[in-house]
Amino acid sequence: MKPIACLLQRTPYGHSKARESLEAVQALAALEHPIFLCCIGDGVWQLVKHQHHSPEGLKAYTEAFHALSLYDISTLYVAEKDLKERGLSPADLMMEVELLSPSELAHHIEACAFTWML
């Protein structure tokens, strides 16, 4: 079975879409769909360390990324260009990720059954 590409592109706060996107990824994985998970664009902000709550007072959901291995998602990918454009480095992130160049990201997406922009 080809994986489903799930591209997280939302900032973590100000709305519920980022939290809902991560929940959707977990649901797909729980149904035994292989997942290619990558943070792109403003989605890289979801992985920044030491997020405890939002300005709106909502509890941070980002710790749920650490549970992805329970869903057989062993590697989390990040678009390297998007990380750099936001002045971030892998050291700013709460977990180890694999950085992808634009061509590597395109290659991974092409290998997937379909792409879901979340």
Tell me what you see in this structure.
By secondary structure, this protein is of the alpha/beta class. 25% of the residues lie in helices and 18% in strands. The protein contains three helices and five strands; from the N terminus they run βαββαβαβ. The chain has helices at residues 17-30, 80-85, 102-110, and strands at residues 4-8, 35-39, 76-79, 98-100, 114-117. It has a five-stranded parallel sheet, sandwiched between helices. The radius of gyration is 13 Å and the shape is globular. 26% of the residues are buried. The mean pLDDT is 89.
Secondary structure topology:
Elements: E1 4-8, H1 17-30, E2 35-39, E3 76-79, H2 80-85, E4 98-100, H3 102-110, E5 114-117
Parallel strand pairs: 1-2, 1-5, 2-3, 3-4
| Helix proportion | 10-25%
Q: What is the overall number of helices? A: 3
Structural class: alpha/beta
* Quaternary assembly: single chain
Proportion of residues in β-strands: 15-25%
And the CATH topology?
Answer: Hypothetical Protein Ychn, Chain: A
Biggest sheet: strands side by side, in what order? 4-3-2-1-5
What composes the largest sheet? 5 strands, parallel
Task: Sum up the overall morphology in one term.
Answer: globular
What distance lies between the first and last C-alpha atoms, to the nearest angstrom? 21 Å
Can you tell me the CATH superfamily?
Answer: DsrEFH-like
Q: Can you give the mean pLDDT?
A: 89
The low-confidence parts are: none
Query: What is the CATH domain class?
Result: Alpha Beta
Determine Rg (CA atoms, Å): 13 Å
CATH architecture identity: 3-Layer(aba) Sandwich
Count of all domains: 1
Number of strands: 5
* SSE ordering: EHEEHEHE
